[in-house]
Specification:
Layout: E1 2-6, H1 18-21, E2 28-36, E3 42-45, E4 50-54, E5 64-70, H2 72-81, E6 89-100, E7 116-124
Parallel strand pairs: 1-7, 4-7
Antiparallel strand pairs: 1-5, 2-5, 2-6, 3-4, 6-7
Bound molecules: pyroglutamic acid.
Length: about 160
Amino acid sequence: MAQVFVYGTLKRGQPNNFYMTDNKNGHAQLLATAVTTQMFPLVIAGRNNIPFLLNIPGRGHVVHGELYTVDEALLKFLDYFEDIPDMYQRNLVTLTVKEWLGPPADEEEKLAPGSLTQAFVYSTTTYQPDWPSLTHYDNYDSYGDHGLMYSSSDITQHN
Ligand code: PCA
């Protein structure tokens, strides 16, 4: 099992959340809402409007997302889906827990609001030179006012 922080299309209400819930490629359990303790630029880039957390700590905003525990099968699938290591790399990030949403029976695992934890995140150090100057978001929504709705038609053509 591994902890994964999702900040983009894998969040609840976003276009790829079904990968976290349909149990086809492995299992995930939502644990909590969380926010990165450090700031990062979260941008929407490429012709498919893909959200990217750029691995430039200290720039941008603290980024809101969701903490999951995932099994090895789903972690492997997500690495494939996120096109590791070309499109994203899987890095560790420190999070501040906001609201616990995990199973109530899991008293031992329960993380208090404000506590710190570490999780994997699909972020990137291999971005295009103009990406850091794109608009920085703190809470991604594919359907937001920006009008840059995510398109999954061809995930290999993100540049
Ligand atoms: N999927 C991953 C990284 C960005 C994306 O759209 C996520 O939601 O965290």
